[in-house]
Amino acid sequence: MKQNRLIYIVDDEADICTLVSEELERFGYETRICRTGAQAAQAIRQRRPDLCIIDLGLPDMDGMALVRQLGELQGIGIMILSGRDSTPDRVLGLELGADDYITKPFEPRELVARANSLLRRLEQIDAPAADSRPRRAAFGNWTFDPASLTLSNERGHSEVLSSAEAQLLNALLRAPRQILSREQLLGDRADPFDRSIDVRMSRIRKKIEADPKNPAIIKTIYGAGYMLMTEVSWQQG
């Protein structure tokens, strides 16, 4: 883990903020507490964090709105920490761009472990740009640039993926025509919420498939996982 990575804790409960902040700082993270969505938005404009941990019950706005705003930015991990434990809330949070969802009450050490895992996955997305491997992946009619999380096709249309979507697509691109299980795609994420893979896969398919309901590029292998059906060529950016 890199030291001094910056994590914003966005929650109006003072005790929760103190608990999370102290636990993260014990493991070498720098933290900043924001008690409202407006404070968080201002802080992000001043200095972008590596990760935001967001409560959905903020006093000035629904936390989902903040998740949506952050989901449009690149390079910021998003973790929801909320007392809302319904499946619709979980799915909506993931659809809006959250990378992980933890419900209250929670175990502080588990939260740190999941933050570690999330930040490692974001590092892996950036890894191709940091070494000698080619930077862009061409598959089918699409090109994916891991450095900018951008998909573009031959017609000039482009889509920017969330960090979670990019991590999932990058894993498939690194293993074309191979079945990857949910466990392989989730990596070492603690206590995986399987529905998150389905949600993200659906979002990727809507962007790259001619008919998302009958996908030809990414196939579901029932009972086993997913497979990228096209060849992939890696090119210098």
UniProtKB/TrEMBL annotation:
UniProt xrefs under SMART domains: REC, Trans_reg_C
GO biological process: one example: regulation of DNA-templated transcription
GO cellular component, as recorded: cytosol; protein-DNA complex
Modified residues (4-aspartylphosphate): 55
UniProt KW keywords: DNA-binding, Phosphoprotein, Transcription, Transcription regulation, Two-component regulatory system
Gene3D superfamilies attached to this UniProt entry: 3.40.50.2300, 6.10.250.690, Winged helix-like DNA-binding domain superfamily/Winged helix DNA-binding domain
UniProt KW Phosphoprotein keyword: yes
Pfam families: Response_reg, Trans_reg_C
Protein name (Swiss-Prot/TrEMBL): DNA-binding response regulator
Occurrences of domain Response regulatory (ranges): 6-119
Gene Ontology terms for molecular function: phosphorelay response regulator activity; transcription cis-regulatory region binding
Source species: Marinobacterium aestuarii
Lineage, highest ranks first: Bacteria, Pseudomonadati, Pseudomonadota, Gammaproteobacteria, Oceanospirillales
Residue ranges of every copy of the OmpR/PhoB-type domain listed in the record: 134-230
InterPro entries: CheY-like_superfamily, OmpR/PhoB-type_DNA-bd, Sig_transdc_resp-reg_C-effctor, Sig_transdc_resp-reg_receiver, WalR-like, WH-like_DNA-bd_sf
DNA bind region: 134-230
Keyword DNA-binding: yes
